[in-house]
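Table S2 (text version). Query chain:
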Amino acid sequence: MKTVLKSFLGAIAGTLLVLLTFYFFLTHKNTEDNEEDQVFHNAAYTVSGTNGGFSSTAARPAVKVPSPEPKSDMDFTEAAAKSVDAVVHIKTELSVKTNYYDRFFDPFREYIYPRQQNKVIAFGSGVIISPDGYIVTNNHVVNGADKITVTFNDKEERVARVIGTDPSTDLALIKVDANDLHYLKFGNSDNLKVGEWVLAVGNPFNLTSTVTAGIVSAKARNINILGGPSPIESFIQTDAVVNRGNSGGALVNTKGELVGINAAIASHTGVYEGYSFAIPVNIVKKVVEDLKNYGATQRAYLGVQIRDIDDQFAKMAGINSLDGVYVAGVVEGGGAEDAGIHAGDVILSINDKPVNSTSELTGIIGQYRPGDKVVVKIRNKDNDEEYLTVTLKDKNNSVDIVKAPESFYSDELGAWLVPANKDELNRLGISKGLKVTELDDGILKRGGLTKGFIIYNINGTGVNSERSLKSALEKSKGNAVKLKGVYPDGMKIAFEFIL
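Corresponding structure-token output:
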């Protein structure tokens, strides 16, 4: 019996020894495996050193290392420092008419009841582009504003005036009287690459001097936001955070150079959802030069109707390649026709810049003026490639530079006036007129008229110049002036007042 008991206890002890040995082996093995996994995980977030990377062997005990912070060779501090003092906060005040009834009685409001002008306050951003106070922003930020107040990064405020606007690109140039201002230098938006880091600088939600970072997500985007005749939409798309108030602010590269003007976001909610869009600085630079030198944008056209080429259209049109843009038609007397471009040709590049979409083509041509020459590479119907030199023209097939008419001040009316352009006159159905651009405390402002109002007749005489206005006012009998005019929305009014 004792022998059997000893044998049984010996068997149990042997079994326990084997189990304990196996347990300690598994425990030690799992510990080694976990430690090796942890080292590998950390190495994935570590920049390779001089040895070229991570190495370990099962024969050597693994050593735990602390998790390093993600490293990057990108430093945005210098670009941000250059930018924040050159980006300004813009506040605009706009007069708002509530309805046709109010507008009709506005000229008599001063005499019927105390005038209470409705005001709307809006905010945006702008970029100082010269030390003497020129600031570029979006047209939609300052369009129709009665007063524009610029606040600098040091909280100083100045009143700005509009030098010129260009709705087709949603750009505007304004100016403050100042010197030695911090400003941003122009970069080259054509050199931007998808994936390149950029910073958006502006004043979202009225928060001044805000800097966000992202990458260039795409180039030459057309988002159909501008409307109007022949808009230029060739936006830089980024994922830098942009919100309301950023409009008109700067998009800069890591060198602190201006590469775009932030203009829009794609959003279902009205706030940032990951897509923002900026006007390329090469277009901005050209528009700014036009507005400074001529007071109006000098818009050039290639003289073609074009469409993008997709797989379905290529098969239908018998095109063997998807590159380029298809010429659906040419404008009679335009630059393309003069150069020998025909319907059915495919435009491949302009000045050696590849063109694969309508937005790319309009973005490139938008950098030139009427009279400029460009080299267009085409593939014709015979599938032959050739280079043609095209002289760009304006929409009237002219190469002449068109200067905006100069404004003048009328002491009698207390307003700055400028001859209305042909597009405005045609749209409103009148042959001539003087547009109100600024109002002082004079008879027109007291009568409730606002900027944008066009005076087309005074005392029975049509007016379209300073001389014709003075001549018409001299016909006043007993200082009574009979005035006819029209608002931008087509509402016409006529009233009399005493000078």
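Notes on Table S2: The CA atoms of residues 5 and 418 lie 120 Å apart. The chain has four domains: 1-71, 74-297, 304-391, 408-498.
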